């Protein structure tokens, strides 16, 4: 028993060791982008659900925090300020599917094909979602949802979502390297990491446990590997279901996605699983509070359908171009810490993280940190 627990924790630790530098790099780049892109202008940039607005929504989402809860809270905020509801839903999807740190982790744990498919699939997902909203959701439902949003019921990470420390004066480099810019970057870096560290740890532990404890025969049966055609059809359908009940959000689900890929889920199944962090049970409950029960059901149904369809498209396109990699075995558990490229990168980016944290604490960061969660925010 103790050996099994040790193997699971060892797997979780070494997966964390492999991705640490990429997390710091991703969060640093995200912090820099947030420091120079004002959140206050978002609502004015999304006046309708046209392709132009959806493209802008994808760009803004890619430039935002990858925290699922912060993305959901910020989406409600820009809707209340006048952004088009459908375009805002597109922004929400892009916030967790097109961000830098997600791509970096996908490359490290799964391969470049998954990073490319997630990016392309994320754009397809937004377009399909917008079509389904226009087709099946009435303007009256949207108006009722906006009225519910105006009640300002609290979810999670409200303070983090509303925080805007962006620097707008000077050239891009001047904004980044100014005292105010460096302070903003340090605050966004620590806030983002604080917002999702639990999801990362939970994701690593679940991934380690599944990799160490679940026999391969179970995955063969669960993902229908003995029936190749059915397996391809089953993967995108079951992927989001696994995500919904895993409770893991944001980049925290990438280690688990790697384990599912090792277990034999289809290529499209991995993509649909990663897409589904915005329909996990805690976030569905927040939708209910934000927009009402009917809109929560609509968001869940449309997101799920769009995720499945987009994943099927990615599966068949990548199959057609022979870009789907072979199922790989995770060998991280057999590794040990040695002086290699990963160790050098971890030391380098660890120092960057320490520098940003020191600046954060020296510039009143703790006060903002206390206000990040909704229960501690004062409006």
Quick take:
The protein is mainly alpha-helical and 379 residues long. Helices cover 74% and strands 0% of the residues. The chain has one domain.
What's the helix and strand layout?
Layout: H1 2-36, H2 42-45, H3 51-62, H4 68-80, H5 85-97, H6 100-109, H7 112-136, H8 139-149, H9 158-162, H10 172-177, H11 179-213, H12 216-222, H13 228-246, H14 254-263, H15 267-275, H16 281-291, H17 293-320, H18 341-362, H19 365-371
Helix pairs in contact: 1-6, 1-11, 1-18, 3-5, 3-7, 4-5, 4-16, 5-7, 6-7, 7-15, 7-17, 11-14, 11-18, 13-15, 13-17, 14-15, 15-17, 16-17
Kindly describe this structure.
Mean pLDDT is 88; it is low at 374-379. The protein contains 19 helices and no strands. The protein is globular, with a radius of gyration of 20 Å. The protein has 379 residues and is mainly alpha-helical. The chain has one domain.
